[in-house]
Fold this sequence. Notes:
The structure is a homodimer.
Chain A: E1 3-5, E2 20-22, E3 30-38, E4 47-59, E5 70-76, E6 78-83, E7 86-90, E8 95-98, E9 104-109, E10 114-121, H1 123-134
Antiparallel strand pairs in A: 2-3, 3-4, 4-10, 5-8, 5-10, 6-7, 6-9
Amino acid sequence: MGTLHRFSGTEDHFDWENVKSLHYAEGSAKGVSGKIMIGTDDGAEHFVFRYFCVEPGGHSALNDYHVHPHGVMILHGHALVTVEDKQYEMGPRDVIFIGPWEHHSLAAVGDEPMGFLCVIPHKDLLAKLDSAKQK
Amino acid sequence: MGTLHRFSGTEDHFDWENVKSLHYAEGSAKGVSGKIMIGTDDGAEHFVFRYFCVEPGGHSALNDYHVHPHGVMILHGHALVTVEDKQYEMGPRDVIFIGPWEHHSLAAVGDEPMGFLCVIPHKDLLAKLDSAKQK
């Protein structure tokens, strides 16, 4: 009857009750850790809420490139977000949509960790859509 | 090349650049306004990021009930969230998943407006999945 995850973190390292760590080890990533805030364990079949924390000087996989889009909201710290040939300085509450097959990376700038919410479609849903298209 | 929406609001009424207001007029709702932060206009085909602001004493439609799930993060203020026969007091950064066909409502408690991010699957995507299932 709803699945609640109460905030249990600190100002620069967010965490929630009853969430799992997410193994994020893309080749070129540096200083990134993740959590799954809403996902399969909650019964969510359409989307996944992930939180990533990037240490100062760190970044997600450079030039990352894949079929699934990202809906991102910066939660703390400051980011330099690269999408294709554009760069955006972003701070708390700023939002960006990164479309399918857009090369992208998110880096922490400044002395503080940078944390963001990153929503993606559930991978089983992408597979179902792909399968429906092929029929 | 990514679609950026910079935060442009205040502490208790969030807003972003280049977002549209969302008409929310469910029968029993009171004191609720909304914005679409990420949606069709951004090219997003899988999910929609909505922001709702609930004035003190206000609430979303009572006992709302529909096929689409919600991924919710409280952004400011304090909420009383009802899902089926459970009630949860929630504050900033707390997260809840509300599944398909779970009766629910979100109310603002206290003297401040309550704002939350509410992610839903895109309605065209739900239609595609439904159509694929029927084939």
